[in-house]
Each structure stands twice: as C-alpha cells, then as structure tokens.
Amino acid sequence: MVKSLLGIHHVSAITKDAKANYDFYTKILGLRLVKKTVNQDETSMYHLFYADEKGNPGTDLTFFEIPNAGKTFKGTNSISGTSLRVVNDEALRYWKKRFEDYNIEHEAITFLNKCAVIPFCDPEGQRLFIISDENNSGVEGGKPWTNSPVPENVGIIGLGPTFLTVSRLDRTERVLTDILGFRKTESYFAEIEEKERKVNVFETGKGGNGAEVHVIEVKDAPRERPGKGSVHHVAFRVENEKELHKWVEKLNNAGIANSGFVERYYFKSLYFREPNGILFELATDGPGFETDEEYETLGETLALPPYLENKRDSIEAKLKPLDTTKS
C-alpha cells in the first residue's frame, strides 16, 4: 500500500538562455539558485534549480537550457501555468509595483478560486502566477532566502497549484484519482485564453496551494508545440526511496508504462506520461541539495553527481560559462 503523495515537488521548464534566465529568476523574482548542474540525460545542457533558501521540496522551479529552442505554440495536453506562493494579499501589491518598475508583462490582481493572484510572464513567455496564501491552508511553504533582493516578508515561499490544459478531462482525472490518489475537491470558472473555462481542482496530501493540480478541458484547440517558455514536466512529492519503489510496483501492476526507478542523486525519481501525454514525475523529498555543496555557497559552481564527475572536463567543455557566484 502506497502512502499519499505529499504535494508538488518541482516544475521543470525550458529556457533558451541560461544567463538571462538566471538574471530574471534571481534578480527580479528573488529566488535562490540552489543548484547549477546539467540535465543528466543530456549533459550538454544546463539544469538550473531555483527555490527557497535551500531548495526545500515543493519550492523548486527548474529550467533546462536548450539554446536552439523555438517559439512555444500554446495548446492542449500541456502544463499551461505555474504558480508561485507568497504569504498574503499584501505581498501581491508589492509584486504588482515591482512588475511595473521592471516592465514585466503582467495582469491586474484578480482571483482564481478563493485566492488572489497576479498572472505574469517571464521574458520568454513562461506562464506564471503569483498566488496569495492568505486564504490557504494545507502544505506549508518554504522560507525565502535572506540574501534575496526581494524583502523576506513578501518573498516567494514555494510552488502553488500547477495548471494542466487537456483535451480529455476524463483521462487525466482517472490517473490523478485512481492511480495517484488525488481527491477531486471542487471546480470554478475562470477566463482562460479569452474564454470562460471550467477549472477542476484536485488535491493530495494535506491539500492547499502546495498540493493542488487545476485541470482545464479544452477540446477546440490544437496540441501544444513546446519551445522556450514551455513546461517540460511536473513532479509530485514522495516521502522516501522505499515509497518510490512501491510506486514503481503500483504503476507496473496498473499496466502504466514508466521509467522505473531513476537515480538523480539530489532525489530519486520515477517518470510516466498520463493518457493525454503530459509528463509526470514522482520524486523523493531527499537527500536534498546540500549533499554536495555547503548551504552558504549553493548554486555557485557546477555541481555534478558522482556518476558524472569523471566526465567533468568534457561536460564543462560543452557548456557556455555561467557566472553564478554571489556578489
């Protein structure tokens, strides 16, 4: 018997430019780069992890750098929005002013379900929301980095709901509820791509913003063609390695094609696609990002897991230098 998933673990997206990406997410959004490493399946590309002070599970927004990534053509069967949590509604007013000051594309403060939000985009069109935890309970948030350029009391404390747009709701719902154990809790209506759409809310674990998936069914649109600013996958939290092996067994018994157990060093993983083609990952809460770096210097040098260390010279030769030392 598997235990319930604990919430959102991380979201991984695509950038064309690691340097510009680093500048935006650390200097504008005030997140901490807690790990500068490479995509372990394609070591010629950076994999950057932005998070709270030390990369607590549920706070990581990560990016693969693909220099030749083209434009994203939005559509269905995609991860269509990522939200970032702040402690209260007052913090949203700070972010609105900050976005205005830095000329960041954003919309007015509005509400999604019961929570105040600011929809905005990063310079590559990544679809994001700042979401308030003022009316939220459930999975706890993280702790903003004290050296962030954003004041700690309004800083981002983790990932909020992940938004999926699918062509067949029933297919995704069946995997979320029957396989992954999410609970369908409610639905609400919101304007999505200039149309009023029904949004279905699923939660796991303690629930709340840090453990929700919001699913929109859109039958009248083409499938998304991913590029820069698109999301590659969403990962959900598993307590430990023992539990992850149970999930491998559960997926196998259900006849769901999957990666099996995958060693990622900073956590252990399992990957599979739900029936609409969206990539899901299950990832353990540990060991964490301080496994190979000190807390004070997280993200400042290129970190490689031990099984890639003997290839460091050839890996570094293929990467464009990226200075992430803290001033």
SSE inventory with pairings:
Elements: E1 8-15, H1 18-28, E2 32-39, E3 42-51, E4 60-65, E5 78-86, H2 89-101, E6 110-112, E7 115-121, E8 127-132, E9 158-166, H3 169-179, E10 183-192, E11 195-203, E12 212-217, E13 231-238, H4 241-253, E14 262-263, E15 267-273, E16 279-287, H5 306-309, H6 312-318
Assigned CATH superfamily:
2,3-Dihydroxybiphenyl 1,2-Dioxygenase, domain 1
> Distance N terminus to C terminus?
49 Å
On the 0-100 scale, what is the average pLDDT? 97
Cα Rg: 19 Å
Largest sheet: 8 strands, mixed
Q: Overall 3D geometry?
A: globular
Report the strand count: 16
State the CATH architecture: Roll
How would you describe the oligomerization state of the chains in this entry?
Answer: single chain
Strand residues, percent: 35-45%
CATH class descriptor name: Alpha Beta
Number of helices: 6
**Can you list the strand order of the major beta sheet?**
2-3-4-1-13-16-15-14
Binned, the helix content reads 10-25%
Domain VOC: 7-144, 158-285
Keywords: Dioxygenase, Oxidoreductase
Protein name: Ring-cleaving dioxygenase
InterPro entries: Extradiol_RC_dioxygenase, Glyas_Bleomycin-R_OHBP_Dase, Glyas_Fos-R_dOase_dom, VOC_core
